[in-house]
């Protein structure tokens, strides 16, 4: 089969490797669409460490089950599926409570030692599978992992009818948060952008107020829009020192701060502890929340969350280097790119 293998810093090579064998409890998925994640770009550029090359990356996967590792899994044959990333041991309290990503044994599809979706086939544990509703396309399935994490985070933190929400960051995570809080009947939703060309996307996915922080004072605007109170739920999906500090400072008294964007270790922001205590804030860090997957599949099928239009760029497997370059450059039109391992040209 064809695979695009990461072989070293900024090195990707198209290789012919044997189709993987699936062991008991695992299935073989024919990859139809694989989302291209910024994390992979960081790994390939050498700016994020998660195991050694050579390796087939790709942890956002949709495809068809074409082989099963044991008779008990026969019912999966031929099913259209999305693949959840975390593997887990299946036995510990985290795995049993739907938090496989916290399992001490860990393991993630697409990260060493588990090969990922930048290939024509991939093997995954059956416990990572969700059947796709008929109405969902492979491309929607292929980027669902990037949407499931923010949706799961909102499911965990909860949102009451009519609450005001501030979302900083208008990338795939921010736009997913935006749709998730809209689906939960949020009140006024304020979203930040740094370039004017992102305003249309933010409005289209449901923001009431879009603030360009390059030209406008965010604090003044948030206070003006919230009758001086601040946001009831304040989400940081950008991960910059300033946005994290603002997320705390612009949260209403007794409100909740949801931290999702990852800051670089060398630029950690000064943490406003006194403010958190005096304003009685709840600060929650969230990532990879597995609980988002099952409800999200139904919401996408019913059109309550629009994933289809978030797939803005499509590439053949051979074009993965261009896709990685695009994701690294992040032009405004980009929300999410996918690769098609069975296509020979850009669709
Ligand atoms: Zn990712
Ligand atoms: Zn476990």
**Number of strand segments:** 15
In this entry the ligands are:
zinc ion
Instruction: Categorize the overall geometry.
Output: globular
By CATH, the superfamily of the largest domain comes out as: Medium-chain alcohol dehydrogenases, catalytic domain
Q: Which stretches are low in confidence, meaning pLDDT under 50 for 5 or more residues running?
A: none
CATH T-level fold name of the largest domain? Quinone Oxidoreductase, Chain A, domain 1
Describe the 3D structure.
With 347 residues, the chain is α/β, with parallel strands linked by helices. The chain has 2 domains: 2-143 and 307-340, Quinone Oxidoreductase, Chain A, domain 1 (Alpha-Beta Complex); 150-285, 3-Layer(aba) Sandwich (Rossmann fold). The chain is built from 11 helices and 15 strands. The chain has helices spanning 38-45, 93-96, 138-142, 144-157, 172-183, 199-204, 218-225, 241-249, 273-278, 293-301, 320-329, and strands spanning 2-8, 11-16, 26-36, 61-68, 80-83, 121-125, 129-131, 165-168, 189-193, 209-212, 231-236, 251-259, 282-285, 311-316, 336-340. The strands form 3 sheets. Strands 3, 4, 5, 6, 7, 14 and 15 form a 7-stranded mixed β-sheet that branches. Helix 6 (199-204) links the parallel strand 9 (189-193) and strand 10 (209-212). Helix 1 (38-45) packs across helix 11 and helix 4 (144-157) packs across helix 5. The longest helix is centred in the middle third of the chain and has 14 residues, at 144-157. The two termini are 21 Å apart. The model has no long low-confidence stretch (mean pLDDT 94). Residues 37, 39, 59-60, 145-146 line the site of one zinc ion (ZN).
């Amino acid at each position: 089969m064809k695979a695009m293998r990461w072989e070293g810093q900024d090195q990707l090579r198209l290789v012919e490797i044997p189709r993987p064998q699936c062991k008991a409890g695992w299935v073989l998925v024919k990859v139809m669409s694989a989302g291209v994640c910024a994390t992979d770009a960081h790994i390939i550029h050498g700016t994020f460490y998660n195991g050694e090359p050579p390796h087939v990356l790709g942890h956002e996967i949709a495809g068809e089950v074409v082989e099963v590792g044991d008779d008990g899994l026969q019912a999966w044959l031929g099913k259209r599926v999305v693949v959840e990333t975390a593997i887990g041991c299946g036995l510990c309290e985290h795995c049993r409570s739907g938090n496989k990503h916290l399992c001490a044994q860990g393991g993630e599809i697409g990260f060493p030692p588990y090969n990922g979706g930048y290939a024509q086939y991939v093997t995954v544990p059956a416990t990572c599978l969700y059947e796709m509703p008929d109405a969902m396309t492979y491309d929607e399935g292929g980027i669902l992992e990037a949407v499931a994490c923010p949706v799961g985070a909102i499911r965990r933190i909860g949102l009451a009818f009519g609450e005001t929400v501030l979302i900083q960051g208008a990338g795939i995570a921010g736009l997913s948060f935006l749709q998730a809080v809209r689906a939960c009947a949020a009140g006024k939703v304020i979203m930040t952008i740094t370039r004017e060309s992102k305003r249309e996307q933010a409005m289209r996915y449901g923001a009431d107020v879009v603030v360009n922080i390059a030209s406008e004072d965010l604090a003044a605007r948030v206070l003006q829009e919230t009758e001086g109170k601040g946001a009831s739920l304040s989400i940081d999906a950008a991960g910059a020192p300033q946005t994290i500090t603002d997320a705390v400072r612009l949260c209403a008294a007794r409100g909740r701060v949801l931290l999702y964007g990852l800051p670089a270790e060398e630029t950690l922001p000064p943490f406003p502890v006194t403010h958190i205590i005096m304003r009685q804030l709840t600060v929650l860090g969230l990532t990879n929340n597995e609980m988002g997957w099952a409800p999200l599949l139904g919401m996408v099928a019913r059109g309550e969350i629009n994933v289809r239009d978030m797939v803005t760029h499509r590439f053949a497997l051979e074009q993965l280097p261009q896709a990685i370059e695009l994701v690294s450059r992040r032009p405004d039109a980009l929300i999410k790119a996918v690769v098609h391992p069975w296509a020979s040209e850009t669709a």
